[in-house]
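Re-run requested by the PI after the first attempt was lost when the workstation crashed. Everything re-entered from the original request form. Ligand of interest: iron/sulfur cluster.
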Amino acid sequence: MSARALIDEALSKVLYVDLTRKTFWVKSRPELFARYLGGTGVATQLLKEELNPEVDPLSPENVVVLAVGVFTGVYPTASKVVAMFKSPLTGNLGESHAGGRAPVAMRMAGFGAIVIKGGSESPVYLSIHDGRVEFKDASALWGVRSSLTIGKVLREREPWPGLRSIMRIGRAGEMLVRYASVILETYRHFGRLGLGAVWGAKKLKAIVVGGKRDIPVADISGYRKVYKELFDEITKSPAMQKYHDLGTPVNVLPLNKIGGLPTRNLTSNVFEGAEEVSGEAFAEYSLARRVACAHCPVACIHIAVIRERYPHEKYFYTTRYIGYDYEPIYALGTMLGIKDREGLLRLIEEVDVVGLDAMSTGVALAWTTEAFKKGLISEKDTIVRPEWGDWKTYIEMVKYLVTQPNNFYKTLAMGVKKASEVYGGTEFALVFGGNEMPGYHTGPGAHIGYLIGLRHSHLDNAGYSIDQKYVGKEYPQPRKLIDELVEEEAWRQVLSSLVVCFFSRGVYKPSTVSKALEPLGLKMSEEELRKLGTEIYKEKLKLKLRLGYRLEDLKPPKRVFETPSPFGNISEDYVREALNYYKEKILNLLST
Ligand code: SF4
């Protein structure tokens, strides 16, 4: 690999925070950022250095790393921050990406990464501004019903100049629901794998971060040229236009049409109410505006409005704004049989207010509904009577997930895997590696992808996208599928180290990334970049193995084989052969 040096010294600064002792220190780690470019690559190394693999994820000893990359604040759509931690949901590696203003704010504050250790005895929030770090009392914020109120209060309490981000947990994080989220600004989240519960266990209510420093580049005219090319490609590409026009809900109708839309706990692959909850219907009847993460010209975040009349007042209304994406529409909509658009928005809003991951929550409620109908649990457990489409009851259940008034909700708050082990129904518990299923039943690629993806997310290797490429054509043999999935996941390690939004992955090809690094003073060929992706993939896999990951446990739930996909029923033999080859491939990779 050619020699690389970082131009921006501030990016190489890692802020270490000890919540137990209320102290902080800064270390300069240029070798780490020059080698791994930031994000996932750097966070993996920092977690390896700091985390004892044996610790309880919900103890103060768990460690959280937040990291940005060399493209952050420099190129368009490098608008994400990576969080890494030990997940309380899976007991293994937790990795979650979020946008909003946080990535650029962190870099403007003068840090490439933040490592959070220890736990506070009483609620606290961190205020990080232009290199200054303060621990502030959050007792008055603890227990506040809405995570949105926390954002409003902190906006007033921390009125600094420069770009600023407010990341905070809701009641679900405080109550240690193992799929609690961290909410950024108002409409972005670290949703998956329970970062919110880890913060809750540390009594960390929020982090406010920001600053206004400049970011140096080595070759300003070269930078301007590359920037313009990237900007033009991003703003003119039809793929990005569709994200701007309808947002990710553009997926609802195409998935329904091919028979890949998980419905009512995947008892069906098509939803009769798809038109009502489609991106087109939301845009037509509910869309209020679009917003963007900082430094993104796409603005894919779609915000709906709902109007509510004040009681006893005839012409007085309050308006509320709710962000909607494909994944909440799937998990809280089609999976629960909800086609009432306004009801679905109210359910999405409640999940956000309490600070839960929409996907895990939807799958948990869907599993509960089926378990209830099958008589595995009764009204004594659920308190209410769950029924497909009944969004009002689901809102009540979301509240119970947070307050946990009985053993059933206490167990469900630990995830669907745990609940199904205790109450039965593992065959229809849609869980992969301990994580609840994303919204694609598109074929073997999606499900094998969730299983082998290192964070068990559809975004690891985009198996759903490989499936859709082959609809109407001959499906690849198991070995070819695994090769495609692993190759894609390895390349994505570079993108998530930089840390660019995956929606622009078609723009940030290896040749483009190599070209974009040059004006920053970093020289890497396409081949070197690909090798780096494989190296980070291996490093993450090794960390997962240290945390107890067992390849022999990889097994999809039975339901996946029962409900037809766009390729008909998925063959168990196909999946078995693919997984056997994957294990062989991984062992070979680790031995090199
Ligand atoms: S495309 Fe959407 S999610 Fe990605 S950075 Fe832009 S606004 Fe954020």
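Saved to the shared folder this time. The CA atoms of residues 383 and 532 lie 52 Å apart.
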